Each structure stands twice: as structure tokens, then as C-alpha cells.
Amino acid sequence: MTEYGNIGSICTTLQCERGLSDKIAMRWVPVDGKSVDYSFSDLEQGSNRFANVLIALGVQPGDVFFTFLPKLPEQYFAFLGTLKSQVICGTLFSNFGEDALLDRLGDSGASGIITKKSFLRKISGIRDRLPSLRFILLVDADEDISDSVLSYRRLMNAASSEFNVRPTTPDTPSVLHYTSGSTGKPKGVLHRHGSVATQTATTRDILGLKADDIFWCTADPGWVTGTSYGIIGPWSLGITQVHYGGGYDAQAWIDLISRERISVWYTAPTALRMLMREEETIYERVHLSSLRAIFSVGEPLNPEVITWARRLLHHEIHDTWFQTETGAIMITNRPGLPIRPGSMGIPVEGIEAVILSDDGRPQPDGEQGNLCLKAGWPSMFVAYLNNESAYRSKFRDGWYHTGDTATRDGDGYFWFRGRSDDIINTAGHLVSPFEVESALLEMEEIAESGVIGAPDPILYEKVIAFVCLHKQFPFTRDLELKMRIHVSNMVSSIAAPQVIIPVDVVPKNKSGKIMRRVLKARYMGTDTGDISTLEDA
Ligand code: AMP
After folding, report:
1. If you measure from the C-alpha of residue 322 to the centroid of ligand 1, how many angstroms do you get, rounded to a whole number?
2. Whose C-alpha lies nearest to ligand 1, atom 20?
3. Which residue among 219, 227, 314, 379 has the highest number of C-beta atoms inside a 10 angstrom radius?
4. How far apart, in whole angstroms, are the C-alpha atoms of residue 59 and residue 438?
5. In angstroms, rounded to a whole number, what is the distance separating the alpha carbons of residues 342 and 305?
6. What ranges do the domains of the chain cover?
7. Which residues, 6+ apart, have CB-to-CB distance to 49 below 8 Å?
8. What is the pLDDT of residue 180?
9. How many CB atoms lie within 10 A of CB 365?
10. C-alpha of residue 388 to centroid of ligand 1, in Å
11. Average pLDDT per run of 10 along the chain, which is 537 residues long?
């Protein structure tokens, strides 16, 4: 019996029952080599096999399993199969380093992980601190490497392609993404199977996907856009998706859109700003006639990008705003709506958004305040794993506080103003200053560190580290490089500081908290404001 409440079944079994078994679900386009097509029937069988693999390994509903892979077809079978088995599926960015992995795998008590041989080193380095991690699956090993490092191919070949999904309710836990905080460890944002209702509705009504569309979402599955719109939304509607194995490459991207006849493209402002910097001739040689709509998410979309796209791509770019916690698009400059460049647009149907002051009063139009959403939409997160108090602190009087500041104009359009915390948004990825500071402090040369974000014309924000060295170590170019490599290896390459500034002291308040506001003002050459609480003020 088909289990229609389960995201894994909705994206596969239901589509086959709708007569789409032979329709291409995923065209996998590797950087080198030939593309491979997977039908909905292939997705159904592959995910069933994977669900059987997990069950045979003794994983129980409610346990946590992670994918830690670059974009590869196996990632999609594993994700959907994990959900079918009612195991919670966490996804990890392939560029995460050891500390980042340890925090996430440790906090969630993950039972297993799927990865590839070249990433194994990062997990082996922390494995003795992960008592719950019982097995590691390798997508590129023909044979098992040990009793607990197992060959995905061998297990999949031996598994049945039939699987009976157990009854799944809207509240059955589904997907887990870790999101960075400005203090403390990353928080595990837990979603539920019922989130598919908002993901399907927004894919249909906002992205406007129709049966014959070919959709390309550039986001990595390690990020909520990569799961909500790179997997769940489109496949829940039986839409063909292209998944490209490479990273940013202007010519390759433009050729891909043209060759694969992409009709709807979902990407991010940093990528668009990078495309804007390319020679205009690359757009002249190709026809982007298949494209119907372009969407963007993750960071503020500056008006220059919209003007550029109108001139060169002959398209509007429709901004969308959402967060890991919201699970789906909440505010958008949707097609059909007159675009106000620089604004995020208006709330999607069924979502109520307001601007509240710090003491919870609605702000008049044009006045900056906290962007809040009326709690209770289907894709709203259900927990920060193991952190009930942090979860509760996000809700006040029935409003979910997003942590963003914004204004609303008289016509109901929302304008992003910034974050109300110290989190850095670099190229659409939230980076925790705390995680970078902690990684730097692991180095013997560093006594203190303070990390901030500063404006960048391409990345929106770049990571700036202030470091105070122990007396015996001089600040050299080699040491700078060592710091970048260390943060890359421990946190992620995205978090590696672009600028490192040596200082005699890192300013702290009387309770020892790093005053990032002061560091930022110093870097920007602006007023440091009230520094009366500074340690040595
Ligand atoms: P994440 O939870 O990693 O998806 O990051 C969510 C955060 O990214 C939001 O809280 C915003 O700060 C930022 N963000 C996402 N979309 C937009 C957008 N369209 N405009 C401005 N900021 C955005």
C-alpha cells in the first residue's frame, strides 16, 4: 500500500502510480563524462533498496542517518530511502571539516553516514568520539573495508527493490539540517513529513513548475534549498530535475541551461553576481530561449543584478526569502507581481509576516524591526534537537522570530535589512563567528580571536578574523595561510577568513564576551558606539 504521508513515497511511489514511472526524474550531469537519466521508477527502486539496507543494518525509525557527499545520484536514493524507512535524514555539506562533523554527528547521536572514500579521513579522525556511529557506507567501494565501513554498492545489489513504508503521520520527523548560531554550537533544525505540504504548494504556486518543465536548482543538498527544492518540492509534483555535479563555472552553467533546455532555474545572488562579472560574449553565443523564470535565494538580491538580468538574460529574477527553520519559501517577489528591485517581495499565501519591535509591538510601515512569522505553517521546524530552550526562545505570543531585521512598505513588500545577531552570511552560507573563533583557538600560536562579517561586493559578506598571538609567534604570511587551512579543515572552506588582522587584544565585555560590534566598527572605520562595558574601558 502506498504511504501518502511519507515524503519518500510521495516523491517516488505516488509518481509511478500517477503513470510517470518512465518519466525522467533526474538527469544527472557530471562535470566530465556522459549524463545519466534516472526515471521515477529508478528513484522508486533505488530508494526502496536503500530503505532495506538501513533496516538490515538495524537502524530504527527515529534514528538519525547522514549523507556526506558531493552532488552524486547516490545522495538522492539515500535521502529518499532514509525517509521511507522513517529514519531522520541529516545532510552535510561536502566541504565540512572535522570539528563541523563532530558537532553535528555527535549532537544528533547519528547511527550511520554515507560518504565517499576520499572523505573517510575526516570521519576516521573523530570516530572515537562518536560512540553512536555504528557504520559508514562508501559509495565508491566495491568491497567492505571493515566490519563497519561498508560498500554501498554491495549492499544495494543485495537489497530488494520492494519496500513497505510504515504509516507516516505529518508529525513523523523527517529531515535534519544544522544551522549555525552566533554563540554556541550549531543547532539541529528538525522537520517533519508534513512539511511537504508547503514545499509542494510553493513549488507549484511560486516556482510555478508544470509537468513539462525542466528544473535546475543549483543548491547543494547540504542546505535546506537543496532538499526542499532540489529534491522534495519538484519530485512531489513529478517534475524532471537536472542535477549538475560541478560547482560554479560560468560557461558550463550557461551551456547547461541552453543544452538541457532548463525552463526554471533556482540559484543564489553570489552566483548571479559572479555571472555578472563574466565577459558578456558568453551570453551572446547561446540561446537561453528555454528559460521561463529565474529565482534566487539565500542573501539579499541587489537591484544591479536584476537590471543586469533584464538586459542580458532578458528575464526577471524573482527573489525568495526563507530559512532552514521555515523549510520553504515564505516571502517572494513571485512571477505575476510587479518586482520592486531590492525588496524580497510579499508573503506567500497562508503566511502572515510582520515587523515587530524588540518588545513585541507591530512597527509602522517603513520602520525597521524584527521579521516575524505567525507560527504554525506546515513546514515550520519542530525542534532544535536537544535544545528545547533555544527552540522556545524563537517563539513569542504566537510569532516565530526569524532573527532577521526588515522593513515593510505601505504596499506590503518586505525589505531585508540585516541579521539581529552576529551570524555571517557569506555566499548564502551562514557562518558562525563562534565556530571560526573556536577553530582558530585550537592553534598553538593563537591566544585570542574575534570573528566578524564585513560587506563584500560578490559574497555579500566576507569573513574577517582578528587574532592575538602568543608573544613568541610572529605574524607571518605562512602563519596566515596555516590559519586559513586550519579553519578549512576544521569548519569548512567557506568559513576560512578572507582577511586576518593581528591585534594586541580582542575587545571583550566585563563578562568576557567578545565585542564583535567593536571589531566591526574598527574594521569599517565607523563609530564604535557605547564601549562602557568593554573589559578595559
Ligand atoms: P539558512 O537558514 O542557512 O537558509 O539562512 C537563512 C538566512 O539567509 C535568512 O535568515 C536571511 O538572513 C538570509 N536570507 C535568505 N534568503 C534571503 C533573501 N532573499 N534576502 C536576504 N536574506 C536572505
Report:
1. 6
2. 300
3. 227
4. 33
5. 10
6. 424-524
7. 77, 81, 156, 159, 160, 161, 163
8. 85
9. 12
10. 23
11. 85 98 98 95 98 98 97 97 98 95 97 97 95 98 97 98 97 96 87 98 98 97 97 98 95 94 96 92 81 96 94 93 98 95 96 97 97 98 97 97 97 94 92 93 95 95 96 96 97 96 90 87 81 55
CA dist 30 and 36 (Å) reads: 9
Spell out the long-range contacts of 412-416 with Cβ–Cβ below 8 A and sequence spacing 24 or more: 412/346, 413/340, 413/343, 413/344, 413/345, 413/346, 414/321, 414/331, 414/343, 414/344, 414/345, 414/346, 414/347, 414/353, 414/355, 414/371, 415/342, 415/343, 415/344, 416/300, 416/321, 416/344
Ligand 1 center from residue 137 Cα (angstroms): 32
Instruction: Provide the sign of the torsion angle of the four alpha carbons 266, 272, 274, 276, taken in this order.
Output: positive
Nearest CA to ligand 1 atom 7: 323
The helix (run of H) or strand (run of E) holding residue 76 is helix 73-84
Looking at this protein, which amino acid is placed at residue 17?
A: E
Q: Is the pTM of this model over 0.90?
A: yes
Mutate to test the pocket of ligand 1, among 175, 299, 380, 405 (most ligand atoms within 8 A of CB): 299
21-25's contacts with Cβ under 8 Å and 24+ in sequence apart are 23/238, 23/240, 24/240, 25/235, 25/238, 25/240, 25/241
Q: What is the dihedral of CA 236, 238, 244, 245, to 10 degrees?
A: 60
Q: Is the separation of the CB atoms in 432 and 180 below 8 Å?
A: yes
Helix (H, G, I), strand (E, B) or coil at 493: helix
What confidence score (pLDDT) does residue 18 get?
97
